[in-house]
Write a structure and sequence with these properties.
By secondary structure, the protein is mainly β. It has one helix and nine strands; from the N terminus they run H-E-E-E-E-E-E-E-E-E.
Amino acid sequence: MVRSIMLCAAVALLICGTVQAQESGFGLGIIIGEPTGISGKQWTGSRTAIDGAVAWSFEDESALHLHGDLLYHSFTPPKINRGKFAWYYGIGGRIKFEDDSKVGVRVPLGMDYLLGTAPLDFFLELVPILDLAPSTDFSLNAAIGIRYFFGQEAYK
């Protein structure tokens, strides 16, 4: 079952990676918290993006954590002179490899600041997770991070 889910996630990321980004291209960076690792984000429209991470979860025991989310952004909150500030929410999935590996649904809620002077974004997120296998369980992740967007000019 885990192989099937991983295959579906990989295919979805490959398909979405071919969509022409309207906003800011592809970014790669780090995520620190629960989980901690490498984070990526691909804009698919002016308000939508796909993000994901390959990370380690330090909750209970060290475990490999993979997740991917479809995100929707709102650029209406605080008006700032340089860069862009957005709230975001979304839905995605998570696989956590440990003794009793878990598969669950993520609902990320966060804020994102796209720096005005460099192709960087800073983010903070809180993510409720409903694990569906091997048993139903609820957990919460929280993290901060930074990503560098390749081939992009500074955000005006």
